[in-house]
Design goal:
The chain has about 220 residues and is α+β, with helices and mostly antiparallel strands. The chain has helices at about 5-15, 20-30, 35-50, 90-95, 95-110, 120-125, 130-140, 155-165, 170-180, 185-195, and strands spanning about 55-60, 65-75, 80-85, 115-120, 200-205, 210-215.
Length: about 220
């Protein structure tokens, strides 16, 4: 059995066994939506390598004492991150005014309750999985200092964390300011990170004009 399939089954079973209440267990017993499974398979798992701290169909209370369910909740150490897969049909073509207002209100109320949201469009999962992986790495970078290899120096490890937090390519000068080192030293670090296949050159043929981004 492929590694993802095995971990996915164990993870879903664990959530079902520890569902917390009958409402959530009933939802989980029906299985997850196709978009959520494809997000986990092609975006989250390749980027992160595990399903730790993820909780499917997570129940939250809204301000009207109703129940709402997040596609995925990411909660390491008690923080509150929500991931929602936006299908093109129900969330774009067929969304009537009432449902659109309810969707906006839902996100507003949960944001006021301390949730950070990562909405992902299903077409992006299918057509742009690498870009989605970059978004996921930046998303989790808001909550935790993602593990890095112990073989990296402190400056290399912090460079990797810096790249994971950004949603765009960055210049050696930006890294130099972040690390409080010279521009020349930052370029040496970036060259080594490319050689280690941890970063990619995003643009620029000449070394002085290059920008860099996380390798995914």
């Amino acid at each position: 059995m492929p590694r993802f399939e095995q971990q996915y089954r164990e993870w879903l079973y664990s959530n079902l066994e520890n569902g917390g209440n009958h409402r959530r267990r009933e939802l989980l017993s029906k299985g997850l939506g196709h978009g959520t499974v494809e997000f986990l398979r092609t975006v989250w798992f390749p980027a992160i390598g595990n399903l730790d701290h993820l909780f499917p169909e997570w129940e939250v209370r809204d301000f009207n004492n109703g129940y709402r369910y997040l596609d995925l909740a990411y909660m390491p150490g008690g923080v509150k991150g929500g991931i929602e897969i936006q299908g093109y049909g129900p969330h774009a073509r067929d969304l009537d005014v009432r449902r659109f207002k309810d969707l906006c209100r839902r996100h507003c109320l949960l944001a006021l309750d301390g949730w950070t949201f990562l909405p992902i469009a299903y077409p992006s999962i299918v057509e742009e999985p690498k870009q989605c992986q970059q978004l996921v790495l930046s998303f989790i970078g808001k909550f935790i200092a993602t593990d890095v290899s112990s073989t990296l120096t402190w400056l290399e490890a912090e460079t990797l964390r810096f790249a994971r937090r950004l949603l765009r390519a960055f210049t050696p000068l930006e890294l130099a300011h972040h690390l409080n080192v010279t521009d020349r030293h930052a370029r040496r670090i970036l060259h080594e990170m490319v050689q280690l296949q941890l970063l990619d050159i995003a643009s620029g043929g000449q070394q002085r004009n290059r920008t860099y981004q996380l390798r995914v």
